[in-house]
């Protein structure tokens, strides 16, 4: 297992209470809210996933409120693939701290918008 995965998973863990851990195994951790969308599925919040060549961190706030990413560092921006995925091959304490802050902003945005309720 990647040495990156446990650190990215740890960013999501504080938000697990009150959400649904859709997957929690040695290579994937995924959180959904209890909010059900029009398509009948729960709203995705975030995940950490080990793949063959990197570990990814997905954060849905990029779609829900892209303005929250405006202050993102250039270094973290270079780790983005698509709109909501950040890829890492090795731990990066500074960028992980920035992801922790973005995750907190995303959680608060979801709370304000009512996406966390049952």
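^ structure tokens above, recovered residues below v
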């Amino acid at each position: 297992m990647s040495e990156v995965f446990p650190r990215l998973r740890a960013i999501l863990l504080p938000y697990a209470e009150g959400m649904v851990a859709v997957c929690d195994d040695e290579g994937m951790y995924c959180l959904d809210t209890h909010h059900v969308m029009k398509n009948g599925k729960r709203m995705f919040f975030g995940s950490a996933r080990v793949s063959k060549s990197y570990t990814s961190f997905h954060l849905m706030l990029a779609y829900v409120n892209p303005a929250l990413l405006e202050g993102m560092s250039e270094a973290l921006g270079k780790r983005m693939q698509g709109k909501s995925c950040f890829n890492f091959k090795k731990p990066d304490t500074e960028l992980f701290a920035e992801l922790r802050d973005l995750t907190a902003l995303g959680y608060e945005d979801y709370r304000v918008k009512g996406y966390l309720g049952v």
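Strands lie at 20-25, 28-36, 42-50, 55-59, 80-81, 85-88.
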